[in-house]
Amino acid sequence: MNMSVPQPLSAVVSIPLADIDVGERLRGVDVDAAAVIAASMQEQGQRTPIEVRKSGKRYRLIAGAHRMRALELAGIETAFAVVVKADDLQAQLLEIDENICRRELSPLDKATFLARRKEVYEELHPETKHGGDRKSDQVDSLVHLIPSFTEATAQKLGLDARSIRRSVARYTSIVPDVREIIANTWLASSGAQLDALARETPDVQRQIADFVTKWDGVRNISEILRQIRNQPRKKAPTIYDKLVALWTRADEQTRLKFHEFLQPGLSLEDSE
Description:
Blueprint: E1 7-8, E2 13-16, E3 20-21, H1 31-44, E4 50-55, E5 58-63, H2 65-73, E6 78-85, H3 88-100, H4 107-124, H5 137-142, H6 149-157, H7 161-173, H8 176-182, H9 191-198, H10 202-214, H11 221-228, H12 239-249, H13 252-271
Parallel strand pairs: 3-5, 4-6
Antiparallel strand pairs: 1-6, 2-6, 4-5
Helix pairs in contact: 1-2, 3-4, 4-7, 8-10, 10-11
């Protein structure tokens, strides 16, 4: 059972950028955002250190890809960094947590990071996974001390448990190739529309993704489906339609009140 927490090896140190390997990231670097950071660095220097870990004679980046790119754009050849002792999974967890806490994450980005965090957390703590590894009596006796992924994530990152589950469900229900296609479109920024997309079959999801990339003017999954299926546009309900719908849903007491409201008018017509 791996319960260790990554620990800093030292205070902030200066490391040449050439000695730091960035590696693959769950989220690509936004060059425009990096350029804004670079402009600030040229005036004020690097104010927030990156996080790295040792990898032989070199370092591997844990957190701070945008700051790394900004340093390059600013022409700064060294980075202030905190060296952390962490294995591969712990390093991934640190990268994920730093990104989840950023406000500019789209709902799709957030779903991606939370889903990956779930994978890493349950790999570090398989006993918390449903049907997980409980091969020893010791694990059975201690498993209640380890919070579930949702509980641990909610506590550490200050997120609502329900929103965590919803985000992970978005990620797992949308097929990978569709997630890649819509990553830089308006759809990635709408949680409600992502949920609507997630309810469709993989083939329909691909049709929707193709539509989104070609037609930017339509930003509603229901309307996209209507156009894909060549269905007629629904007419707006009339006042009469709305009244009938309300009458259908009304209970007996409400209907009696409505009769009482109409009765004076009916009596007047009868008297004429």
